[in-house]
Amino acid sequence: MNKQTMNRILDTLKDMFPDAHCELNHSNPFELTIAVLLSAQCTDKKVNQVTEELFKKYKTPSDYLSVPLKELEQDIKQIGLYRSKAKNIQKLCRTLLEEYGGEVPQSHDALTKLAGVGRKTANVVMSNAFGVPAIAVDTHVERVSKRLGICRWKDTVLEVENNLMKKVPREEWTETHHRLIFFGRYHCKAQNPSCEICPLSDLCREGKKRMKSAK
DNA sequence: CTCCCGATAT
DNA sequence: ATATCAGGAG
Questions:
Q1: CA angle, corner A72, sides to A70 and A77, nearest 5?
Q2: Which nucleotide, over all strands, has the C1' atom closest to the CA of A142?
Q3: Residues in domain HhH-GPD (predicted)?
Q4: Half-sphere exposure (Cβ direction) of A187: Cα atoms closer than 13 Å
Q5: Whole-number mean pLDDT of chain A?
Q6: Measured distance CA(A30)–CA(A32) in Å, rounded
Q7: How many H helices and E strands in chain A?
Q8: Which phi and psi angles does A158 have, rounded to 5°?
Q9: Closest nt to A36 (CA→C1')?
Q10: pLDDT tens, A169-212?
Q11: pLDDT tens digit sequence for A75-94
Q12: Is the Cα torsion angle A118, A120, A121, A124 positive or negative in sign?
């Protein structure tokens, strides 16, 4: 992909979603970390429904450790993958208390060592909570980047991330990341993407195919 | 690679 | 009925 095409994509995304932002409700780094951990294979909307009550009941790492595992499981059950997530939350909270004075560490390396926190979650926390430029590659960013030809179809999520970091100016990483999410979530959807009204459909094999069959 | 898993959209 | 949802661990 040449530079002009990439710039066209970035300009179009900015035009379509000028105020794209993190849609996981949170009021501090700790809540954000919990919310992102919960968001794996689940919609943000559902996570927000659950965290509205969850964050009233659990304010600190100690709070999550003050109840039996089974109780926490029930409190997040609607999210799915709830057994492993509940276990990870308690293990993560134990680590925060034992290693970091109950605070969320402000380094990518330390974050990924926490239970249930991988590269994608660490990137989201670093960028949204601590203002460090990052591009977290989730299901939307991966799908959109591949459809638009920003990277190759066979690329791993790490390769997708490296591609985006190479092609997007560092100071625009975080905003671009959010725009790719919005683009994937509301426009270039996994099912029934809006190819007919997509200003970038000429860049996308899938889009071209759908345009033809629509005629 | 598989497993984890309920809610929602299609 | 099936696909998908801000993935991570083993």
A1: 90
A2: C6
A3: 38-186
A4: 22
A5: 95
A6: 5
A7: 12, 0
A8: -70, -40
A9: C6
A10: 999 999 999 999 999 999 999 999 999 999 999 999 776 555 54
A11: 999 999 999 999 999 999 99
A12: positive
For residue A44 the two structure tokens come to 């943000």
Q: Is the CB of A131 under 7 A from strand B?
A: no
Rounded to whole angstroms, how far apart are CA atoms A198 and A184? Answer: 12
Question: Is there a contact between A182 and A17 (Cβ–Cβ < 8 Å)?
Answer: yes
Average pLDDT of A43-69? 98
Instruction: Sketch out chain A's domains with CATH numbers.
Output: 29-130 (1.10.340.30), 135-214 (1.10.1670.10)
Element of type H or E holding A70: helix A69-76
Q: Is A154 a catalytic residue?
A: no
| Nearest-angstrom CA–CA distance, A111 and A186 | 29
Tokens at A70, concatenated: 């089974």
Q: A154 beta carbon < 7 A from strand B?
A: no
Please say if A138 is a catalytic residue. Answer: yes
What per-residue confidence (pLDDT) applies to A205? 75
**H/E/C letters for each residue in A41-53?**
CCCHHHHHHHHHH
Residue A43 has pLDDT above 70, yes or no: yes
What is this structure's pTM?
0.95
Give the model's pLDDT for residue A208.
Answer: 54
The tokens describing A171, both together, are 């100071």
Residue type, position A116, single letter: G
